[in-house]
Amino acid sequence: MALAQPMRAPDSILDRLSALHPKKIDLSLARMERLMAALGHPERRLPPAIHVAGTNGKGSTIAFMRAILEAAGKRVHVYTSPHLVRFNERIRLAGHLVEDAPLAEALERAETANAGAPITLFEITTAAALILFSETPADVLLLEVGLGGRLDATNVIETPAVSVITPVSIDHVDFLGSTLSAIAGEKAGIIKPRVPVVSGAQAGEAEAVIERAAARARAPVFMCGQHWSIADDAGRLAYADENGLLDLPRPRLVGPHQIGNAGIAVAALRAMPGLALPAAAFEAGILKADWPARLQRLGSGPLVARAPAGAEVWLDGGHNAAGGEALAHAVCELEERYSRPLVLVVGMLGTKDVSGFLAPFAGLARAAVAVPVPGDHMGLSPQEVAATAQALGIPASVAADVGAALDGLSFHPQFPPPRVLVAGSLYLAGAVLAQNGMVPD
């Protein structure tokens, strides 16, 4: 992590581009297809791509794949969203975050080609990313879906090397549907004819949807639990598929859910045609992989300094029911290693299931402090979040921001200092990193 930086040149371009469409989200491929044609089809000149959809775990799975590939000496492009502190985090070119000058130039090229036509900010910035990926040599592109899959801007790629679907759960119901089957159908929209499909562990109805979509596309399927598996084995990870066994270390990313994400990453790389990686690369990559704001323990900084002496401060961007359940399991693991009173500091958007996210912490958290999500993100009021926590039996209060929440914490001297978990929104997580003087690099 690097120190936070002041405003940079691309910001003014992004502000200008954000005015090209009245909605932040408007799922359609038509605008992207038009812009790709105007740009000379950069999406057809990409390195072999691994396209990743799913509800939870996409970023962590990509982090594992990148670390493994780089351990094998490969040059890797990465596209993820949203960013935490600065936009450059979304685009990694051959191992390095894009610098301001080439980012600004690509954004301006996309803007010129778009000629003022309506287009969402995510669509036109994805176009800029594809320009950069098409013109910078690399061995592999790791491409994360923004929302859904079928109509996502990244789905203009015609033939990825592998399609990946991480675990599917209920989220973004306003855009993807209110049932697991409907949401899985949108995610499965990235499946392409005869392109291998790797899936994480799925609920039965989601698994059936993915398998049917793959069958229609005559795409070979590698399903967790059927074609590959990964499990904790005496402090190591045992991975198995039809090509044999791998004995791997536990990742430094915290939580049992990261074992599943690591397994998806390994399965995807082993399914990629023409890619043969040594076992040593898998071992080194699993151990090295890092992904900010995914159960990240914060070190020193001005925000952390406001917590009680000796307190642990953890940060996670989890924001839906499945994310809350995974986080609660991970905190239970921490509790088993060293018991501390757990305090949640939570801010959430109005589109999220607050009760579903908080329910797994009932009986686990000693208290919750609700805070607003900074910025223009349609955040719920702290009072609404606190009321939901109270209804679940979690004592709750409100604070003006995360710093004020940390200022107000106190604990009985007979107990250890608290373990504080700030969670509920990636936007909140990004603000916390910035306030603590940390920028992902």
From TrEMBL:
GO terms for molecular function: ATP binding; dihydrofolate synthase activity; metal ion binding; tetrahydrofolylpolyglutamate synthase activity. Its EC number is 6.3.2.12, 6.3.2.17. Keywords: ATP-binding, Folate biosynthesis, Ligase, Magnesium, Metal-binding, Nucleotide-binding. Residues 52-193 form the Mur ligase central domain. The keyword Nucleotide-binding applies. Residues 307-425 form the Mur ligase C-terminal domain. It catalyses: 10-formyltetrahydrofolyl-(gamma-L-Glu)(n) + L-glutamate + ATP = 10-formyltetrahydrofolyl-(gamma-L-Glu)(n+1) + ADP + phosphate + H(+); (6R)-5,10-methylenetetrahydrofolyl-(gamma-L-Glu)(n) + L-glutamate + ATP = (6R)-5,10-methylenetetrahydrofolyl-(gamma-L-Glu)(n+1) + ADP + phosphate + H(+); 7,8-dihydropteroate + L-glutamate + ATP = 7,8-dihydrofolate + ADP + phosphate + H(+); (6S)-5,6,7,8-tetrahydrofolyl-(gamma-L-Glu)(n) + L-glutamate + ATP = (6S)-5,6,7,8-tetrahydrofolyl-(gamma-L-Glu)(n+1) + ADP + phosphate + H(+). The keyword Methyltransferase does not apply. SUPFAM superfamilies: MurD-like peptide ligases, catalytic domain (SSF53623), MurD-like peptide ligases, peptide-binding domain (SSF53244). GO terms for cellular component: cytoplasm. Its cofactor is Mg(2+). One of its GO terms (biological process) is tetrahydrofolate biosynthetic process. Functions in two distinct reactions of the de novo folate biosynthetic pathway. Catalyzes the addition of a glutamate residue to dihydropteroate (7,8-dihydropteroate or H2Pte) to form dihydrofolate (7,8-dihydrofolate monoglutamate or H2Pte-Glu). Also catalyzes successive additions of L-glutamate to tetrahydrofolate or 10-formyltetrahydrofolate or 5,10-methylenetetrahydrofolate, leading to folylpolyglutamate derivatives. PANTHER family: DIHYDROFOLATE SYNTHETASE-RELATED (PTHR11136:SF0), FOLYLPOLYGLUTAMATE SYNTHASE-RELATED (PTHR11136). This is Dihydrofolate synthase/folylpolyglutamate synthase.
